[in-house]
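Course assignment 3, question 2. Fill in each field.
Student: A.L.
Task: Predict the tertiary structure for the chain below.
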Amino acid sequence: MLFTYRAVTVKGEKVKGTIEAFDRKDAGTKLNEKGLRPVAIQELVLPHARLFDPLFGKVRSDELLIFYSQLYDMVSAGIGFLKSLEMISEQTRNRKLKNAIDDISALLRKGTSISDAFEQHEDIFPPLFISMIKSGEASGELETVLRNYNVLYDEHLEIQRKTAGALFYPMILFCLGMAVILFLVAFIVPKFVEIFSTAGIALPMITQVLYVFGTAMIRYWYLILGVTGLAAWGIWRYLKTEPGRYLVDSLKLAVPVFGPLNRDVAFSRFLTTMGLLLKSGVPIIKALELASDVMQNVILQSSMAEFPERMRRGDTLSAMLRADKRIPASLIQMVAIGEETGNLSGMLERAGVFYAKAVENTVKKITVMIEPFFLVVMGGAVAFVMASILTPLFRMINLAQM
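Answer field:
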């Protein structure tokens, strides 16, 4: 097996590279023999193998939430960190997560720090969690940090569930409507066209267009699927690039109704995360860097890219936010009050709660608005298809009566 590693030399220099070994433990032994102290060792996954990760090797967010919750509950109950990991491992069904927990336990037995052990599994545990663990180790408040992160992660998932729930029912309506329309166009319209042609009835333009489209679907379905698949793959690849991400994230903020929702979701994550990071003892500049990453919008993240450097030069957070027109004035005022009173972490958490409620209210409004909208759109589409059938049918009836 091939592994990538980050290590430190005897002189304290940081190095990285790849090494072939039987397993991660063997890789660590070989690095020690070379005079290197490993910091992180990860299995190198080939590109073709990554294609199957979402299906067979992914750790779901709800599984991580259970892990964080169990870990905090056991540590707060007075059970040692290593013993807690061992007990959680026995109850974990996800093979990838179980292997990671076992590997972290093995590293802890060797004397590796908790944050360094988790850092070797960055593909599962995010940098935010690792940084908070590191601050908890340094301050001796590991239990508090675990509680804070557990609350933070649960809040982030709750926001995702609410936004996804708002779109679930409309998407079901859309898929069912499209299925009905495709069935009518591919199978019903051609049958009626044959009847009309036999009877010598002139077909309206909409009927002719739908007939050609339906016939093409039946005859060339494999080409349609192939072209659609290639187009979807090309779009997916483009969206993975930096210009693609900028395009999607800019659209997320510009789309009517959903734009303000996406903005409020991003700010809620940023504020709640930064408030808890500061409360957990993470330095403000590091907290700013980590909190901007959880916004999951490159447009908003790029607007804050210079914040850490400007803060090093003495700028306040409220002054930097005020320079960006995308930042709501209410948020800037809350941050300024927190800075003036010396309770920035508490004020950021309150602001995060405020935006979380704004997200909840917006989701409720969208749910109320979007369901009838989809019903009208899909009903109109079905009516259009039916009109292409009924128009020549009425002509045929009139001719028969004459």
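Instructor remarks: The mean pLDDT is 81. The chain is about 75% helix and 5% strand.
Grade: pending
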